[in-house]
Amino acid sequence: MLLVGFGVVGQSFAELVVSEGAKLGRDFGLRPKIVGIVDSKGAACSPDGIDISKALDSKMSSGSLEKLGAAYRPGMTGLDAIQETDCEVVVESTPTELSKGEPGLSHVRTAMKEGRHVICTNKGPLALAMPALMELAHHNKVVFKFSGTVGGGTPVLDFAKKCLEGSDIRSLSGILNGTSNYILSKMASEGSNMKVVLAEAQKLGYAEADPTYDIGGFDTACKLVIVSNYILGTSLSLKDVQVKGITEVSNEHVDKAKAKGNTVKLIGRMEKKATVSPEEIPITHPLNVSGTFNAISFNTHPAGEITLVGKGAGGKETASSVIRDLIEIRRTFAR
Ligand SMILES: NC(=O)c1ccc[n+]([C@@H]2O[C@H](COP(=O)([O-])OP(=O)(O)OC[C@H]3O[C@@H](n4cnc5c(N)ncnc54)[C@H](OP(=O)(O)O)[C@@H]3O)[C@@H](O)[C@H]2O)c1
C-alpha cells in the first residue's frame, strides 16, 4: 500500500495497521504492507515495508519522514510516488480542496491509470468529479472506495448500499457536518453566540481555522453529492447543489424555533433537487442529534424512514473506514 497524506487520518490508519494487524490477518487474511508514505515535504519508500512506528515517531518529532534514513526521499511528490512505487492500493488522504480538487484529483486519476485500487478519504476529487472517477475506475478495472468521505467511521454509504438492498430509496436528508451541528446545538441549549461557539470549536479542534468550508455549508454539500451519487444514482457535482450555510442563523431564530418545539439544523437534502440550508425540524425528529454527531435519514419504500446516527469525523473513526474499504477490496479479489 502507498499512503498519500500522512496527517490525522494517514497516521491513525498506520496506527490501526499496527494495533489491529493480528486481527486483520486472522479474521480477513489481510496483511497490509505499507511500502510508501508521502506528505507535503517528501516521501519514504521501501519495497520491504516501511517501519511504521519509526514513521510515526519521525512525523511526531520532526514533522517530516526524514528520520526514516535511506528510505526518505525529500521532495518526492505524491504523483512520483504513485508512478514509481510497486503497490496494489493507494490511500489518498491529502487536504480537501474545492476549486480544482488538487492535489487529490491528480493522485486518484494517476493511481487508477497505473492500475492501483484507490481508497480516498478526501472529499474534493469526489465532490468535483465523481462520475468521471467512477468511470475511470471501471475502465481500468480497479476498485474505488471512499467510505471515509461521508460520516467518518459511521458506515453511511455501505449501510445504504448493502443493508437497504432491495428497498427503493426515494430521497435522503442528513446532518452531515459536525462543526455546524455543534454550533447550532450550543446556540439552542445554552443560548450561546455563534462567534463565541465557533472560537471554542476551533480551540477544541472541531473547526478549521478557516470556517467557511464547515459553516458555509460546503462540507455538507460535498457529502450530499457523494451520498446522492452513490446511493440514488445521480450524477451531481458540487456546482449542482444550492448551498446556504448557518452564518445568518441568529439566536432569535433559534429561540423562536425552540418556542414552537422545533430546533434549527443545517440539513443536506436530496429530493427533487440537492440543497443545503438551515431548516427547522421538530425536537422529536430522528435527525435531531446534538454536538458533533452526524445523522442521515433514508426515505425508503416500503420500509419508510430509516435513520443512521454516528460520529461524523475523527482520525481513528475515519481510519476504521479505510480498514473496511481495504477488507472489501481484499474480498473482491479473493472471490
Ligand atoms: N480528520 C478527519 O476527521 C477526517 C474525516 C473524514 C475525512 N477527512 C478528510 O481526509 C483528508 C485528510 O484529513 P486529515 O485530517 O488527515 O488532514 P491533515 O491532518 O491536514 O493531513 C493532510 C496530509 O496531507 C499531506 N499533504 C498536503 N499536501 C500534500 C501534497 N501536495 N502531497 C502530498 N501530501 C500532502 C500533509 O502533509 P504534511 O504532514 O507535511 O503537512 C498531511 O500529511 C482530508 O481531505 C479530510 O477532509 C478527514
Detail the topology: elements first, then pairings.
Blueprint: E1 2-4, H1 8-19, H2 21-28, E2 36-38, E3 42-45, H3 52-62, E4 72-74, H4 78-84, E5 89-92, H5 104-113, E6 117-120, H6 123-139, E7 144-145, H7 156-163, E8 168-175, H8 178-190, H9 194-203, H10 212-215, H11 218-232, E9 242-243, H12 251-259, E10 262-270, E11 274-282, E12 293-301, E13 304-311, H13 315-334
Parallel strand pairs: 1-2, 1-5, 5-6, 6-7, 9-11
Antiparallel strand pairs: 2-3, 3-4, 8-10, 8-12, 10-11, 12-13
Helix pairs in contact: 1-13, 4-5, 5-6, 6-11, 8-9
The chain binds NADP nicotinamide-adenine-dinucleotide phosphate.
Residues 4-10, 38-41, 78, 93-96, 103, 121-123, 148-149, 152, 313-315, 318 line the site of NADP nicotinamide-adenine-dinucleotide phosphate (NAP).
